Amino acid sequence: MRPTTLCFPINAAGEFLLGRKKRGFGVAKWNGFGGKLEAGETFRQCAVRELREESGLVAKEADLELVAFLDFRFDTHAELDHIGYVYLVHTWQGTPAPTEEMEPRWFSAATLPYEDMWSGDRLWIPMLQARRKISGTIVFAADKESLKYTEFTDVADLTESDSLTAF
Ligand SMILES: Nc1nc2c([nH]c(=O)n2[C@H]2C[C@H](O)[C@@H](COP(=O)(O)OP(=O)(O)OP(=O)(O)O)O2)c(=O)[nH]1
């Protein structure tokens, strides 16, 4: 699968904006806003575009704080393997609006709906809430849902890799 981006808008109260996905990969799950890189796009361009398309929020590339690099692997479905860059978004224009793809809602840090999120999220999202920057590997089992293996490393600094935009 193509490389992906994922944005989590955070408001002044520290709440996370999540959207409940109405279609596609991860349907019915709550998640941040993101999707696959399009040809010729940089990761930040993709992140800004997906955030706007899925939540209605308009952010500038410079307002995205890169906080994680995640390597998603599928034990028995290698065609689904992909990487993702994760951003926190502190500044934007507009207000969250439901779209045909996503229904947005604010959640306090302590009440994220992990039971209706990707199964690895409860492991790494709290690291981001603790203001850590991480690089991680998440291996899903044959059911494409449960976790087979995870590994997370703190990193001092993160930069998008240009080589990953060639696909
Ligand atoms: N929180 C979380 N997000 C994940 C995980 N795995 C994973 O791909 N994502 C994110 C990365 C992307 O933002 C999104 C997958 O991309 P997508 O299928 O929605 O891409 P898209 O919008 O371009 O595709 P589509 O709607 O046209 O099918 O899900 C995970 O384990 N946890």
UniProtKB/TrEMBL annotation:
Its cofactor is Mg(2+). Keywords: Hydrolase, Magnesium, Metal-binding. It holds the Pfam family NUDIX. The keyword Metal-binding applies. Coiled coil: none annotated. Its EC number is 3.6.1.56. It catalyses: N(6)-methyl-ATP + H2O = N(6)-methyl-AMP + diphosphate + H(+); 2-oxo-dATP + H2O = 2-oxo-dAMP + diphosphate + H(+); N(6)-methyl-dATP + H2O = N(6)-methyl-dAMP + diphosphate + H(+); 8-oxo-dATP + H2O = 8-oxo-dAMP + diphosphate + H(+). Residues 1-130 form the Nudix hydrolase domain. InterPro entries: 8ODP, NUDIX_hydrolase-like_dom_sf, NUDIX_hydrolase_CS, NUDIX_hydrolase_dom. Oxidized purine nucleoside triphosphate hydrolase which is a prominent sanitizer of the oxidized nucleotide pool. Catalyzes the hydrolysis of 2-oxo-dATP (2-hydroxy-dATP) into 2-oxo-dAMP. Also has a significant hydrolase activity toward 2-oxo-ATP, 8-oxo-dGTP and 8-oxo-dATP. Through the hydrolysis of oxidized purine nucleoside triphosphates, prevents their incorporation into DNA and the subsequent transversions A:T to C:G and G:C to T:A. Also catalyzes the hydrolysis of methylated purine nucleoside triphosphate preventing their integration into DNA. Monomer. Belongs to the Nudix hydrolase family. This is Oxidized purine nucleoside triphosphate hydrolase. It comes from Megasphaera hominis. The lineage of its organism: Bacteria, Bacillati, Bacillota, Negativicutes, Veillonellales.
